Amino acid sequence: MTHAYRLLSNGQLLDLPATLPVLDPATEEEIARVPECTAELLDATVQAAQAAFPAWRDTPFGQRAERLVALAARIKEHADELALLITREQGRPLPMAKAEVMTTVHWLRGTAQLALPMSERTDAQGVRWATRRVPLGVVAAIAPWNFPLTLAAMKLGPALLAGNTLILKPSPFTPLATLRLGELAADLFPAGVLNVLAGGDALGPMLTEHPGIAKVGFTGSTATGRRVMASAAPTLKHLTLELGGNDAAVVLPDADPVKTARKLFMGAFLNSGQVCIAAKRIYVHESIYDRFADAFAETAKAAKMGPGTQDGVMIGPVQNRPQYERVKALIEDCRASGHRFLAGGEVPSGPGYFIAPTVVDNPPEDSRIVQEEPFGPVVPLLRYASVDEAVQRANASEYGLGASVWSSDVEAARAVAARLETGTVWINSVHLLDPQVPFAGRKQSGLGVENGVEGLLEYTAVQTFVG
C-alpha cells in the first residue's frame, strides 16, 4: 500500500517521517508505515484545539450538525476505499468492513439529529432559572482496533456536535482508515476543530495526562480503562469509558434450538469474536442443550476462514499478535483442563493470526474460559437446569455490558432480561445499537453513556442562569 498517510493537526495534513509499522493480520506482512505523533506535536495540537474552541462553541448548533452530515457524505463517497483499508489492517471480511463504513455514515447522520435540552422555571418569588448544557473544551477520543471507524464516530459525532474540539487517536494496530478519514475531513471543519494523531503506546497516556484536555472518551479493555481513569484523575477530566464485557446469552427451554444456534453463531463469532458485546457465555437449558450444541458446532465447522479479501470468508484473523497469543493461551488452558471441544480447538500453522471458531462443551463455571473475556473466536456452551440458576450464573461476573435472552415467548424473555445486571439486554437478537439510543455498561464494563441524548450530554457541562 503506497499511500503516504498524514496526521491532521490544526487544519494541516502533516507529511512527517513514517515510523510506525502497520501489519496485515492475515499475512503478518507490513503493509504501511504511518507518522508517529511526538510530545511537541501533541502540545501544538492541543493549543490549536484550544484556540479553535471559542469560535466552534459559538457556531450555531445546526451548522455543527451540518458539518457532521457533510463528513458522513464524504465517508460514503469513499466507502470502498475505506472498507479495503479496514480489511487489510483489521482483518475483517470485506463485506463486513463495508458494513462498518456504512454504519459510520449512519452514526454520524443519526447523531446530527440529536439536540441538547434546556430547561426553565420561575419560582414563587418570580426568580427565573434557566439551565443549559455547554461544551467542555478539548476532547481526546481514543478508539480501539476492533471497529476503528464506527467506534471513533461514536465519540467524534457527539463531541463536535456539542461544540467541543477534538483530538482523535486511532489504535496503533489500525491507524490507516482513521488517518484517511482525517484527510477526507480536513477541509470540512475549521482549523483545529478536528485533529487526527497516530502514535504508539506512549501517545495514549500523553493524551489522558495532558492538562489542556478537558475530557477523554475511551473504548478498550477494562485494565486499560483503569489506567486511563488514574492518569486523568490529577486534572479531574470528564470521562466516558466503554470497557470490556463477558456477555451472557440465556437460551430458554422454549427457544427453537437450531434456529437460535444459527443466530447466536454470528452473535458470538462476528469479527472473529472481537466484539465487546459478543455473546461470550451461552447458557442453554438442559432440555435443548444437545440439539443446540450440535447445530452451533456444525455452523462453526462450516464457517469459511481466511483472509478478508477472499470471497465467502466469514472468519478472518485475530487482529494482532498479543491478542492472538491470549486467545491461544485460553484454548490451551481448556485443553490442559480436559474440557471437550465441539468445534475448533486447533490453531493452524502458517502465516496470519488465524484461529478457527472454537466451541467448548459445558466447562465448569469457575474455568478461565467462562470467567475471562476471550475477545476472540472461542466460546463456551453451558448447561443450566432452572431459569433462576441461569440468571444467577449470568450475573456472577465483574462485567455488565450486554446480554441476550432467547425464547419463543417475548414477554417471558423480557421478564428474564429485567433480572440481568447489564446495560443492554437484547431479546432474540444481539449487537443491535442505534445512534439515538443510549448504550452504557455496568460494574467493570465502564463509566458514562454513549449514543442518544444521554451520550451527547456526556460531552457537556451544566450551566444555570438565575434571574
In a nutshell, what does this entry contain?
It contains 15 helices and 24 strands.
Task: Provide an overview of this structure.
It is a single chain. The chain has 467 residues and is α/β, with parallel strands linked by helices. The chain starts with 6 loop residues before the first strand and ends with a strand. 38% of the residues lie in helices and 22% in strands.
Helix content: 25-40%
Question: Do you know the CATH topology of the largest domain?
Answer: Aldehyde Dehydrogenase, Chain A, domain 1
Main beta-sheet annotation: 7 strands, mixed
Q: What is the terminal separation in angstroms?
A: 61 Å
Any idea what the shape is? globular
| Low-pLDDT regions | none
Number of helices: 15
- What CATH architecture of the largest domain do you see? 3-Layer(aba) Sandwich
Could you name the CATH homologous superfamily of the largest domain?
Aldehyde Dehydrogenase, Chain A, domain 1
**Mean pLDDT across every amino acid position:** 97
Q: How many domains, in number, for the residues? A: 2
Q: Return Rg in Å.
A: 23 Å
CATH class of the largest domain: Alpha Beta
Kindly estimate the percentage of residues that lie in beta strands according to DSSP: 15-25%
Strand adjacency order, main sheet: 14-15-16-13-12-18-19
What is the number of beta strands?
A: 24
Oligomer: single chain
